[in-house]
UniProtKB/TrEMBL annotation:
The keyword Lyase does not apply. Transmembrane segments: none annotated. It holds the Pfam family Aminotran_3. GO terms for molecular function: adenosylmethionine-8-amino-7-oxononanoate transaminase activity; pyridoxal phosphate binding. Belongs to the class-III pyridoxal-phosphate-dependent aminotransferase family. It comes from the Bacteria. Gene3D superfamilies: Aspartate Aminotransferase, domain 1, Type I PLP-dependent aspartate aminotransferase-like (Major domain). GO terms for biological process: biotin biosynthetic process. This is Beta-alanine--pyruvate transaminase. It comes from Devosia enhydra.
Amino acid sequence: MSDRQAVVPNDLSAFWMPFTANRQFKQAPRMFVGAGDMHYTTSDGRQVLDGTAGLWCVNAGHCRPLITEAIQRQAAELDYAPAFQMGHPKAFELANRIVSIAPQGLEHVLYTNSGSESVETALKVALAYHRVKGEGSRFRLIGRERGYHGVNFGGISVGGIVTNRKMFGTLLTGVDHLPHTHNLAKNAFSRGQPEHGAELADELERIVTLHDPSTIAAVIIEPVAGSTGVLIPPKGYLEKIRAITKKHGILLIFDEVITGYGRLGTPFAADYFGVTPDILVTAKGLTNGVIPMGAVLVTAEIHDAFMQGPEHLIEFFHGYTYSGNPMASAAGLGTLETYRQEGLLTRGAELADYFADGLHSLAGLPNVIDIRNIGLVGAIELAPIPGSPTKRAFSAFLKAFEKGVLIRTTGDIIALSPPLIVQKHHIDEIVETLRTILSDLD
Ligand SMILES: Cc1ncc(COP(=O)(O)O)c(C=O)c1O
């Protein structure tokens, strides 16, 4: 090994970290070197309680045996199989298992390697579906303000986060946006779904009228917007969006990258709200975050529309080298089996009230302007420091890490989404740590 190589492992400069304040991080790195169940181990040997399931993905907790063993076995048995024109059994087995826990009517699965790729795949399926049906004039996509659909060009185009869009030119054309539903004046400190705002869904009628329904392919929304701070749909809102899309022959895509696989106490948010989309986008919890993988579920009607023409021809010109990768499929099977054995896809429902009580007990602390929750997701919104937005929440994040709890912040909002194996005493620890920090935060 050359001297240069020997030095590299301890040098932090080469890795340009994603969505990270790189310079701040590299001055005072926060490194995890191990994990088990509800905790991380830091490089200085401390235990940190995972209040965020990693990045909303480690739903079964860390280093779970069924998943670890499945991956170990798979690596020794079949490392890779070509994804195009070849198959391997576990990709099919996993697709069947996903369909078996999915809302009724979603019967076919396309694999991806991330939430961002799942979003691109869903948008492309939607556009192509209309075209194969002879309705190629439907090219427009409707997203929503404050929506997060990953970081690829389709996702940032339909997404509604200015910082993620403004650097990147013209994005996709033919995109419009619904207004977001966040309304502190009317809905602050709601438990569960807020009362006010269902009428915001009527904006879809306005957009549809403006462009004409015959030009609109799909509407994509997160049933609960996660990354922009846990924005919970007002009562009746999703039902209205579903009715309007159906009326106009527009596909409804739910981005369930965060809400999928038990986060709300039901397998999917579609189950929680009783509203079924035409396309359901997932990733994260599918493999417990262990190996990158996403899955896009579509109805039989969409799938079948493509299955025409000569049988030797490819029906849909889309896919990835790693679609349904053997290691990822094994991880997915281990994950879904863990969820099944431990009842994790519905466990959130049992703990939701306790979690809500804990979070809402923080009301009245300095600078807390909202607390909201649904299933095992919660948010505490802080008043920004005048002239320094995001700083207050970021310092809460740093203090929580020092005190041994991992939280996540977005803007001045603290978001919480513990692994679904969380126990009541873990919830108490998260809440009491936040109480101490928020009581004494600049
Ligand atoms: C709703 C939603 N969609 C898409 C994504 C993108 O997923 P990934 O980071 O795996 O590309 C995320 C990530 O947080 C998400 O929350």
